[in-house]
Design brief:
Layout (H helix, E strand, L loop, with lengths): L14 H20 L2 H13 L2 H7 L3 E2 L2 H20 L2 H4 L3 H25 L10 H29 L8 E3 L2 E3 L11 E3 L4 E7 L5 E7 L2 E3 L2 H27 L13 E2 L2 H27 L1
Antiparallel strand pairs: 1-8, 2-7, 3-4, 5-6
Helix pairs in contact: 1-2, 1-4, 2-4, 4-6, 6-7, 6-8, 7-8
């Protein structure tokens, strides 16, 4: 069997992947030493999620543009490590908003690429018009956004987390406050304090004061997340639509659109996998000879 030299194939720039991986491992060690095992789990989850682009490339034979792959890696790092572990969600007011906007953009890219790949496949006989491809991409992105909000609601309900971030509001309107039980909302403005009376686990009466207003239980956060997801999905769907209508005139769109590998690229992937296996075997032999 011919030995494959590394120099025979163009190797993808993995600088960002290596830097982010080192940062995650360093963070995991620090959190482990501090005894923050929940954050350790988040670090492990991040390392697993970092393998998604590799899985898509090697197993599904779908070529991710370098720009899109870097955005995905930075998104995962920003959401899990910076957002959850380093509490950027609490430190920076619009951190969550930014990530949900990017999520809408990325999910639309995934939905668009799936249909575009089928459209350009000889095995797929039905061809969709550009407007319908863009519509599917938009709907796919919004579906993922809604499912994520379901997940946040489930985590908050079952495990008593606060993924749907609560907010302090100064105005509420509710039919529950109507003394006549009619379907007319009662509006309360200029709320400056809320006092909650409750009983703790020991049966003691307790009091919790919320200064500055009333506690909105995640409704505004959920709707804001879906709105910015909508914006991200719209932006990508429009880019994808223009790209299909005139591919030569919108080359920049290719930075964000995954493509099915050609037969030559698939063969190259197989050869690269073979090279990796050969290198592992050589290392094992060297260890045994020692």
């Amino acid at each position: 069997m011919k030995k494959i030299e590394i120099g025979e194939y163009k190797k993808k720039d993995i600088t960002i992947y290596i830097i982010l991986r080192v940062l995650v491992i360093a963070t995991m060690i620090i959190q482990l030493l501090r005894g923050n095992f929940e954050n350790v789990f988040m670090c492990v989850l991040t390392l697993i999620l970092f393998l998604i682009p590799i899985f898509i490339d090697r197993k599904l034979n779908i070529k991710l543009p370098d720009t899109l792959e870097k955005i995905i890696l930075l998104f995962i790092f920003s959401a899990e490590i910076l957002g959850e572990v380093q509490n950027f969600y609490g430190i920076f007011k619009n951190w969550d908003t930014m990530l949900h906007t990017i999520n809408g953009f990325l999910c639309a890219a995934i939905g668009f690429s799936m249909i575009d790949i089928l459209n350009r496949s000889e095995k797929f006989h039905a061809k969709m018009e550009p407007i319908f491809v863009a519509l599917v991409a938009f709907c796919f992105s919004m579906t993922i956004g809604v499912l994520w909000e379901f997940f946040e609601f489930g985590m908050d309900t079952v495990f008593k987390t606060d993924m749907q971030k609560d907010r302090i509001v100064q105005t509420i309107s509710s039919v529950e406050l109507n003394p006549d039980k009619k379907n007319n909302a009662i509006v309360i403005n200029n709320i400056n304090k809320t006092v909650i009376y409750y009983t703790d686990q020991n049966g003691m009466q307790k009091e919790q004061v919320i200064d500055g207003g009333y506690l909105d239980l995640g409704i505004k956060d959920t709707m804001k997340d879906l709105l910015v997801n909508f914006i991200g999905a719209i932006v990508y769907s429009l880019i994808g639509y223009c790209y299909i209508k005139g591919r030569d005139g919108y080359k920049f769109a290719e930075w964000f659109i995954p493509k099915r590998k050609t037969a030559q690229e698939i063969e190259q992937t197989k050869l690269e996998d073979l090279l990796i296996k050969q290198n592992k075997l050589e290392k094992r032999k060297k260890k045994k000879n020692k």
